[in-house]
Amino acid sequence: MERRQLLDHVRSLPREGRRSPFAPEQPASLADGPGGRLIRMSLYRNLSRTGLAHTLGVLTPTYLSASTYGVIGAGRKELTPGLVTDFAAVLGIEARQLAALTGVVLPGTPRPPAPEAVDAAALLWAARSLSAAQAQHVAELAGSLRGDSRAEYRLNLPGW
């Protein structure tokens, strides 16, 4: 319920005019191939390689380092069906469509994304145009909805 409430709130916020045109910083090492496309799509959701590592690590079975996403973006690591499926969940794209865009053959019918991943994808898309002040407000609201006083999210991994 809290995820839906947060998404509704983000969608209700007024869009403030940009001071300059949006142009995400494109790492020079991005290739024109499928890996580069996936990283560019992530950048348009304000997910840097580190943000991508955290997001995929929390919402999907994939846990890779930020530098590995740099290697993927540079086209030096082959995309696997599982990785394409997990990217699809976070990007809010149907896995078979993303597989067609990347040229990766999926071995069967992909599993549906977890509800948390579906909600996160919608939130990432809705929040992409918020101002820094609005994003800070949303982060604080998310913390209060979780009953958490911290301003940032921390992984709750066993053994840490």
What does this structure look like?
With 160 residues, the protein is mainly alpha-helical. The protein has one domain (2-10, 31-146). It is 54% helix and 0% strand. It is built from eight helices and no strands. It has helices spanning 2-12, 34-43, 49-59, 66-73, 81-91, 95-102, 115-127, 132-146. The longest helix has 15 residues, at 132-146. The protein starts with a helix and ends in a 14-residue tail after the last helix.
Q: How would you sum up the major sheet?
A: none
User: What is the straight-line distance between the termini?
Assistant: 28 Å
> Into which percent range does the helicity of residues fall?
40-55%
Poorly predicted ranges:
155-160
Q: Please identify the structural class as seen in this structure.
A: mainly alpha
Shape: globular
Beta percentage is under 5%
Tell me the Rg in angstroms.
Answer: 16 Å
Instruction: Calculate the mean pLDDT score and round it.
Output: 86
The string of secondary-structure elements, in order, is: HHHHHHHH
Could you say how many structural domains there are in total? 1
Number of H- or I-type helical stretches:
8
Number of strands: 0
